[in-house]
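Give me the fold.
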Amino acid sequence: MTASCSVKEEQVQKVSVLKPEDNRFTPVILTPEGALDEPMMFEVADENSVFIIERKGALKRFDLKTRTMNLITTLDVFTGNEQGLIGLTLDPNFQTNHWIYLQYAPAKENVFKLVRWEVSNDKLVEGSEKVVLTIPVDRENTNHTGGGMTWDKNGNLYLTVGNNTGNRLTAQTDERPGFSYLDDQRGASNTNDLRGKILRIHPEPDGSYSIPKGNLFPENTAKTRPEIYTMGHRNVWRVSVDSKTGWIYWGEVGPDQDTDSETGPRGYDEQNQAKGPGFFGWPYFIADNQAIPKYDFANDRVGEKLDPTRPVNTSPNNTGLKELPPAQPALIYYPYATSDKFPLVGSSSRCAIGGPIYHRSDFKNPQRPFPEYYEGKWLMGDYSRFWIMAVTLDDDGNYVSMERFAPDYHPVQPLDIKFGPSGDLYVLEYGSNTVRSAAESRLVRVEYNAGNRKPVVQASASKRGGAVPFTITLSSKGTVDYDNDELKYEWKISGDNNSTMNEKGESPVITLTDPGVYTATLTVTDGKGESGSATVRLIAGNEPPVVVLRSEGNKTFFFPETTFEYDVKVSDKEDGTLGNGIDNNAVVVSFDYTSEGFDFAPIQLGHADLDAASRDVVAQSMIRSSDCRNCHTVDVKAVGPAFKQIAEKYNGLPGSKDTLAQRIIKGSSGLWGTDNNMPAHPNMSVTDARTIANYILNINNPKPSSLPVKGKYSLKVPSDDNGRGTYIFRAAYTDRGAGSIPPQTTDTIVLLKSPKLNPVKAEIIEGGALRDQLDEYIFLTAKPDAYIGYKAVDLTTVKQISFHPNWHLYDIYPGGKVEVRIDKPDGELIGEAAFEPEQFNTRYRGLFDGLKNPSAEQQKRMKRYPALDPSRFFARGSDKNSFTIPSETIIKETNGVHDLYFVFRNFKPGKADALFPLAEIVLMNSTSKKK
């Protein structure tokens, strides 16, 4: 009996720690577009409130119930060199004392300040300010601020302070007079300086602080600061405390050197752990204690390497102890290139930020607790690589393994990750770059569903309408149940004549004999009683019209500065044909250009709130997908003016379309009364805003003009668009109905996509090719024998393909080839192009200190590519990818539709992991001289 119980308990335990399905985690976007701009940190106070800081000085509170953002204050801060409002935490007793701590760079003092305030009614209480700690810093030619803060169970506050030093590829040990801002021995390895440290203090009620026992240096130790817990940090970011062990975890950004050389090892980012106070090596050691030789900048030569067990700081800029504690190796570390020890982290840009350790016991009655599988795991993120990893550690805190957490969620530059008090994981996303932060930054809550999931139901019909008797097949295709429960399918077909019909099964066949409008409702129920429903509308008694759109040329892509020839044919059982019962003017023909990222589904699926008979379906769809309808209707004033009122005000004014488009993008206030402020839509392109503006301006026209049913259309890309959009060619006809049976609309849509293909968004990505990022540039890292593919591509008139590399400054890509194949990855070869590192590596062409000691073969290749002009390359707003050299191939003449594959190959057999960074593939309908 005892043995059987033990076996059962062991089986239960094994089941409980199985990895949950990825689809149980759902990222929920909390903040509205435009609510944040360069957010830095957040704290979840309770189920109602999240406090968020922005680098430019704003402290905000987001109300989780009303989904509104409230500005508490804007501090006057210095915003150069990464500084500003950089740190935020709430007192452990915030619910009773309402104390908030902010770390920032005041505009008129060369310091970082840690200041405590009391918050009440979304205001800082006047007179409550307490300056807890002041850290002197340099401002000119420096970077790296830190700002991370957290608490342990004893009420001790940890805060991170960056090294406040300028950047160099070589050692940060410049001891020349006047260059102390390039010497990390003055800060990070200085026992008497607070920069390049993680501090641990105990804030007191009066605004002062005491020193907890167990910091790196006991109080009153000469030439030391007792606040220091760990030191030897370069760019230390967020810090977390394991509530069980008291160990701390953080991310640390390393130097930029991309190859090992005599000046030192390549740079590594570190995801770190400290089980107690200690020295973590910088600027003498990195990663697993690889030594960085000191550099003699006065004589331009490599200096000595220190012993990690007995490091010494002999810099004239050092005001602290000469002998330092032994250097501690990093827990996890990775370079720009692929890491042999931690291959899952990927390659290219890096920016380690750390993250929290999960313990179920940290939360009281959480609504959605994470499963047992994540107990004790470290959820660490990388700001530049769009991932969060779940790291498994053993009981002694040693690294065991890592895996992608919620791999379908790709946070856009996450820079703060932590659990809220209810057990949900929150992620603050900065957005793809500083310019786009106001449009793309957001707070996301990753929710876990541990219980039974309702079936996700879809309903459709083989035809939506027809003459009686009307026989159709109903379909539940697309319905899924993530729990794999046995499902029960029930249909109820209700007519406007009060008739009802019930059917069962996944795809029943029904016949409607009486004319009328019917609604077929599908209800799907799982074995636990949870159900979901979907409906489809059916019209019996009126055969829908048939609309055929014939065209010449390529059926997949548009090519700028060409014409599209088309001919629309319409027939209807009751109405007749074009010219014989159906007037040409009754057919709506439209061409619309939409910018990259437009959602075509509402148009193709025929959403009920789109006027199918209108030529402005595209504009209506854009309005539907935005928040415009929250404030505007077509003809009745709501929060804002009706569209018809806007048309009356703006029509006839010079440049009214562009004026209205800019107000849609930037927002406006006071134009219709002080109580009507239109929010900004910074993520919307000018092209799409003009489409909406044109629709609004013409909304009072009884019938907006339509294109002829036969003709030619000139294909052009707006001058201020990136050319990666899509032309939507649509022809629609609404019949005249049949007696009391309502009219039906049929449309035919042709999507002509941009010939500029984004490799990151390929329909097929196999073999380890992955998304990477360098600054704001996002690209695909091509790997040997990996491939990407696009389904059902019309290659008619395509004569040449151009491959555009992404610029790079790190010597991690040897180059390689692209094979162009059709139908399958090993299908017919119709073209081939090669990349050499000189085409994209800017150091090979004279920038970023240039390539050191190039081989004879490298020198030979470098002569084929012109040196880069730094003044143009680094000019404000320059597109750095415009300076890379594309590779081109004339392809074999291929007509018709094929699956198109791009297969990546190494130049020669070897161990190369990453071949080249691929930014764009351009299909061309003409040939140019191959490079």
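Residues 1-16 have pLDDT under 50 and may be disordered.
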